[in-house]
Every structure is written in C-alpha cells, then in structure tokens.
Design goal:
Distance between the termini: 45 Å
Number of domains: 1
Number of strands: 9
Order of helices and strands: EEEHEEEEHEE
Helix content: 10-25%
Strand order of the largest sheet: 6-5-4-1-3-2-8-9-7
Structural class: alpha+beta
Shape: globular
Radius of gyration: 17 Å
Number of helices: 2
Largest sheet: 9 strands, antiparallel
Amino acid sequence: MLLENMKINYNPLVLFNTLFNIVSYDTKIKGYWIDENGKVYIDNIELQNYPIIRNLEFLNAIKVLFSIGEKCVFYKDVYNQGVLRFPNRKWKVLKNRIAWLENKKPSQKYIKALLNQHSGLTIYNMWEEKYLIEIYK
C-alpha cells in the first residue's frame, strides 16, 4: 500500500495534560492531602485539559499558579502519570496509579486512614452514589 493511501489516525488534540486547579466553589472532585504535621487539607478541584499542541499555554497556566502563591501543582501527563511540579522547576513523577470505585461516599475515618498510608488522594463523585478514588504513588 502506498503511503499516500494510508490513513493515519494520529490526532494531537487527543493527547493532553490535565491540570488539577483548586477553586473556591464546591465541585464533584475533592483533593485530599496531609502535611508532615498530620493536618488534613481538602480542596475543591476543577480539571482543565491542555492538548499537547498547546503546551506553551499549559506551562503558562502553571506559572500563573506559582505567581499567586501555589507551593506545588499537580497534573496528569499524556502518559496518565501524576506529576508534582514545584516553583523551583523541580518535579516528581508518580508512575503508579491506584483507582477503585466505592458504592457510597467514603467516611472521613476511611479517608484519614488512606492519607496515613499515602500523602494525597482524589475522590470523584461520578454519578448518584458512585465514587472513584484515585491515588498516585
């Protein structure tokens, strides 16, 4: 078959980085993390997708977050890895993803137990009483 006749299904708009933005209003996605003193933080999360062909826009969005005082930014990259990015241009890639569905809203005790084993997690209210719990390590 000639190359001219081959259809390539590569679409760079399908590959994207997903930035986890902290917002002040209530959302169906909650981010939980625990600091070194054991204090638990709960953030309302809004996901923002950036196609890889708009990588400069993605990097600028991260710069804006650091300029308003964020100490760390979390995003999922095009390989579905979690990435922690810091203002000093260092980052940590979290390659292992653990995810499961719960049939009811996780209790605060359950969340605290998970946070004692992992430094952070995300809970998505998927539909009705289904919750997706996601941890990156």
